[in-house]
Amino acid sequence: xxxxxxxxxxxxxxxxxxxxxxxxxxxxxxxxxxxxxxxxxxxxxxxxxxxxxxxxxxxxxxxxxxxxxxxxxxxxxxxxxxxxxxxxxxxxxxxxxxxxxxxxxxxxxxxxxxxxxxxxxxxxxxxxxxxxxxxxxxxxxxxxxxxxxxxxxxxxxxxxxxxxxxxxxxxxxxxxxxxxxxxxxxxxxxxxxxxxxxxxxxxxxxxxxxxxxxxxxxxxxxxxxxxxxxxxxxxx
Length: 236
Prior knowledge:
The protein has 236 residues and is mainly β. The chain is built from three helices and 17 strands.
């Protein structure tokens, strides 16, 4: 579809596609698959996340694409166990862009609201993604199992539900992005990189590293995971 500016110059609508993908160690993620994790194994069955203020950069100029998106890589009714790619379309002026900015989670002014404040179909209308007791959205859900005893079979739950303003993070990444009539951008999250800190995998044999606390005053593990999202983000 096109519209016209005052000077009758055509403007493409929904001409820029952003596609999000999830990987493990560089390969597309699949649910219920045991992946090597050091000398043990890890399996994932859920990963979804909120992203705020998705923005293209053009030098000092910013072109905001979206205030908030909810990206569900493991929907309940997917046709198979492969994690899905999730795409959104935006309207972007032609130009040569220099990078992208992402907010990991729900920025504070939006997080101060609740699902009833939004219309049906809005990303923040989702009641299952909101913690009433915390007065916060659940920014990220990562669930699965870990082979804690090293017998090549996953047997211990891993459960990361991260929320509250204190765990919100942003990142800016450089990448040449050309929009000429239309354009595309892929953004990948690698879960192995998300669990890697200073070159070492998070020790999941430690019980306090396996599950985020439901106590709003104990967000240390949530902060650790959310602050590492920028290191797990790839722009291929």
